[in-house]
Amino acid sequence: MLPILSGGFINLDQYVTLPQNLLTSPGTLLEDFEISADWTPNAHASVAANAVNYKTGTYSEKMTDIDTNQAAMEKTVNLDMSGSWEKLVVWFYMHDVIADYGSNSVQLYLSNHITYANAFRKYITTGNLTHNQNLWTPLFSHKTEFETIGAGSWANPIIRIQLRFGGAAAGKTPAISFDSMYTGIRGIPAVCLTFDDGTIEQYNNCFTYMKPRGIRGTCYAISDYVDTANYMTHQQLQELDSYGWAIGNHTKAHVDLTTLTEAQQETAILTCTTALLGWGLSKGAYHLCLVQGASNANTRTAMTNLGILTARTARDWTGNAIRLALPFGDLWRIPSCTSTGHTLAELKVYIDTAITGGYVCTIHLHKVGAGDISTADFQALIDYIQLKSRAGLIYPITIDDLYKLTLGPVRVPKIK
User: What's the maximum distance between 2 C-alpha atoms anywhere in the chain?
Assistant: First the structure.
């Protein structure tokens, strides 16, 4: 158990310093997307150098779907990927609104065969890309997460790289730019436990169980509900803060921001920020939890005007969704997996996936012991995280830690 000093402060003699972006290796550049002539489009696509939107270098490659069929572009290569590399990423930039892309996916193929009969595939469904237009989004995949097609084998040379998306919605010609494919990225796994609403059950069932185990979390408080029945008092939130928790912003009154005007959204967010600062809870005051995970263009304007640092969504990062690893494309669209509808065994798998892939597993919880997850299952989840943390396999972090890790190294308590 991690030693606790009087006053509730963790003994910082027992800590570990995590590197910036949790990276132990930034990987090796596999493809820089600098030369358009290297890429051959299929009959449904066009490819052109993009000197305006690029991740690194001076260009990306912009692929446009010119009809309603699946657009693709490919490059002939000769790559030895038989080694023990951990994670690959390719960055993509969606130029149009999500509806223009149709109900399909953004796909990466690495092939041993010219017809892709023996290959590996990784994709993100467009349903997981809402609001991802006009920003760079990472498609991360651990080597073990690729889908194998035919007799695809890493022991054999990769001779084709192909990127696909579409088909487009009727009458639309959407485009995606691709850049910066790296392999061999190695990241330190982390878990970020977040608790929405600031209910009294989260104090009684969660904080009190996590505290003696030295595991910190993030509690997103609704400022109008603080000091009312069934919710924590501001003194209880201060107690969480004193143990290293981040107390985040879940707005003034838990109203879906997309139902409000831009000015009303600013009021909803700022009122909570002001309340948290007034209670001395500065660590999380500028970290927002989007109500119902919903946001729109006005939300982004409001967050810009108010200096919001991160925004956590309710968008699942499991399956064919966006994995969370640093550096991440958009800190206002942080994905998370919910305890609602997931078994304890599934939640443990998400922790294991983060450990294997070097990801950040963000889990959000609501009514622990009162609907979403039983008290026994929650305690078993915390015990599992403690077990893995003691072995140095994964590190519990707060949302404030996550943000600060994008800026530089961060010191966090060891779990004993």
Answer: 70
What is the C-alpha end-to-end distance of the chain, expressed in Å? 5
> What b-and-e string marks burial along 118-137, b requiring 16 or more CB atoms within 10 Å of the CB?
bbbbbbbebebbbbbbeebb
Q: Could you give phi then psi for residue 92, rounded to 5 degrees?
A: -135, 150
Q: C-alpha distances in angstroms, 59 versus 50, 53, 330?
A: 5, 7, 21
For 259, residues 6+ apart whose C-beta sits below 8 A from its C-beta are none
CA atoms within 13 A on the CB side of 351: 25
The amino acid sitting at 249 is: N
Q: For the segment 272-305, what is each residue's pLDDT rounded down to a tens digit?
A: 999 999 999 999 999 999 999 889 999 999 999 9
State the pTM of this model.
Answer: 0.91
Strand order in the sheet with 147-149: 40-41, 71-79, 158-165, 105-111, 119-125, 147-149
User: Residue length, the chain?
Assistant: 416
**Nearest Cα to Cα of residue 270 among 303, 245, 241:** 303
What pLDDT, in 10s, does the model give residues 173-199?
Answer: 999 999 999 999 999 999 999 999 999
Check if the beta carbon of residue 168 is closer than 8 Å to that of residue 67: yes
Residues in contact with 276: Cβ distance below 8 Å, sequence separation at least 6, in sequence order: 221, 223, 247, 249, 282, 284, 285
- 344-386 confidence digits (pLDDT tens): 999 999 999 999 999 999 999 988 987 789 999 999 999 999 9
CA distance 89 to 140: 4
CA distance 12 to 212: 15
Instruction: Tokens for 47, please give them.
Output: 């490819």
**β-strand pairing of 190-197 with 360-365:** parallel
Distance separating alpha carbons of residues 343 and 328, to the nearest angstrom: 28
Cα 62 from Cα 165, distance rounded (Å): 12
Distances in Å between the alpha carbon of 270 and those of 51, 280, 285, 391?
38, 15, 9, 41
